[in-house]
């Protein structure tokens, strides 16, 4: 085996390390240096031992990653709770063993593997290398792997899992996380992200066999030499674009569209695929932001690679749109599963839509076109829209008036994807799903959020509305007039200390004495409390939450007397406490400014009274 540009190297390096004086830590160091073949990550551990940074060593070696709302996600670098060559090999061994036990036909179905454009020079970790090591582990056991030959959007992996009838899929990505991070996202055979009990069983399987099985697990070259490796790129891209036409309702308008669109791929994978999606819809491709269209693992031109942060990270896109006289800006996050949208305002400046506002527009658009093609009211009984419970209730308002079904899930698209699968099996049609963090799915071709298809759908919606002399923002207000204004606020504070997070939520659960939750927020009476972490729901006769209990994360929802709903929850992928508030007004009520002012007051109280940012040294969101 080759030296892989100096990444793989001498295994005897562990013999040179001195004792730390802590037998448990010494054992962890010894295990790492014995198993790890990546010269750079071994050197990172050796240097920490040499300078006696024992707390840092304990931090990276004495705990392991856990599956969150988006699989395994952590900083790249040395350590058992980091993303690196060794932990990816260990994770894949555990996944392989579990799949082998679960699927009798595993050897004929195989696994799909994709990757984004992330990388880190100092650890020698990059998404492509980690994807090849994932494939090598599986190929070493003579099971087929459908490994994409180049970077792809995250939704291509679940799409390929379904199309190829694979047993599972793995996507190496950390989506919109900081550049230091990477991740290992696992999809089940139904194309949805894994959920319980599979996640727990896979983790157990990983921990049962931490030592790499053989030298073959480290051989990236296996993906070039093995006859069991196929490249699904051409087939999957062609099928995806063909199927995308099912979401195109007004191609005749698109081909003569007078609007100009700007697209930023945030230094990630989206550029080529969004261009193709536009062409599939009959559009001229959007104007790319030149500084951001090519992959760059350092995300050099943005403060953070998350388009959800709004105008502050869309600066280059908006400047280009001004120069090109484009009225719509579309931004996909680095793995192209999320979509941000901004529209030129009538006067001056830009309207950057929130995830909840975009969902109102897309939900309206999908039902409007569905009804055009299904005029029989009876057909509506089989139609569903889905949203996570921390997202806007606007789809619920649609459903109440239009007669289709709406359901909520726990946060995370894995819950939506799995619910979609259940509904489809019983003959139902899910026409739109979303989570407020700019994650949308139009139709049901992929059981995960999809920024590529959503970008093309938004472009067509904007074109149709322009033909009716309406902007996206004007139509949003039309929707609110019909279904009721839904004013919402979503933000977060950063907390890098898990014990502090536990203390904060413990205080909320014992706010007025042991087992007593807060009774007011900002002077407004709290009438119901749902604590999904403990399974408590005061609105239910048996006081038990209808949503599944999720003990691995914190989430408490307050329903206030004035009709406002507020939720506090921990992020499954980042060191954040997120907060969500929404005011749902009745149809026809149009005094938006008073709604927004009341929302602002209660949101400020929610954060200050329950989270106590200054006292707990929380970092408020920078805008």
Automatic annotation (TrEMBL):
From the Swiss-Prot or TrEMBL record, give the protein name: Phosphoglucomutase 2-like 1
GO biological process terms held by the UniProt record: glucose metabolic process
Q: Name any cofactors this protein relies on.
A: Mg(2+)
Q: Which cellular component appears as one GO term in the record?
A: cytoplasm
The GO terms this record gives for MF are: glucose-1,6-bisphosphate synthase activity; intramolecular phosphotransferase activity; magnesium ion binding
Which residues does the UniProt record annotate as the domain Alpha-D-phosphohexomutase alpha/beta/alpha?
65-209, 240-344, 355-483
What species does this protein belong to?
Seriola dumerili
Q: What family is reported?
A: Belongs to the phosphohexose mutase family.
Query: Pfam families per the record?
Result: PGM_PMM_I, PGM_PMM_II, PGM_PMM_III
Q: Where in the cell is it found?
A: Cytoplasm
Keywords carried by this UniProt record: Carbohydrate metabolism, Cytoplasm, Glucose metabolism, Isomerase, Magnesium, Metal-binding, Phosphoprotein
